[in-house]
Write a structure and sequence with these properties.
Elements (H helix, E strand, L loop, with lengths): L2 E6 L19 E13 L4 E18 H14 L12 E8 L10 E8 L8 E2 L18
Parallel strand pairs: 1-5
Antiparallel strand pairs: 1-3, 2-3, 2-6, 4-5
EC number: 4.3.2.6
Pfam family, one: GGACT
GO molecular function: lyase activity; transferase activity
């Protein structure tokens, strides 16, 4: 194993509030897309099953830093054990496409799916007329 990929779609992206929490410098960061839907939980998003395209970033982390990266991201995302009832998110592998037009996924990456009960303040992130994908933050103001 030379490296692992991580798909992020919220506060761990470049320029967001938790970008500096990554314990390792990535080998590379690229735009990526997965199938799903997004819920806006005000301060952060949650990835849910769905058929829309969700835009995020794929971070490639060198093999020697993968274990520590998983430990740190698991703590940030409230992940304790696969399928655990106390998890805020579940860590899973997902197929990531570099472009929505691609017929085959480019990489398989770790990501975090939101599994906690949805608070009343949560809303689904809508697809805007200006783009064919979902993204958080939306950049739109109410």
């Amino acid at each position: 194993m030379n490296a692992e990929w991580f798909f992020v779609y919220g506060t761990l992206k470049c320029g967001q509030c938790r970008e500096m929490c990554w314990p390792a410098t990535p080998l590379q960061v690229q735009t990526g897309f997965v199938r799903g839907s997004l819920i806006d939980l005000v301060d952060y998003p949650g990835l849910l099953p769905g058929e829309d395209w969700v835009r995020g970033e794929i971070w490639q982390i060198a093999a020697p830093q993968v274990t520590e990266t998983l430990r740190v991201l698991d703590a940030i995302e409230g992940y304790q054990v696969a399928g655990g009832s106390d998890n805020l998110y579940d860590r899973r592998r997902v197929e990531v496409y570099r472009a929505m037009e691609d017929r085959q996924p480019t990489v398989t990456a770790y990501t975090y799916w939101y599994v906690a009960p949805h608070p009343h303040s949560a809303t689904l992130v809508p697809r805007s007329p200006q783009r064919d994908y979902l993204e958080w933050p939306t950049g739109e103001t109410s």
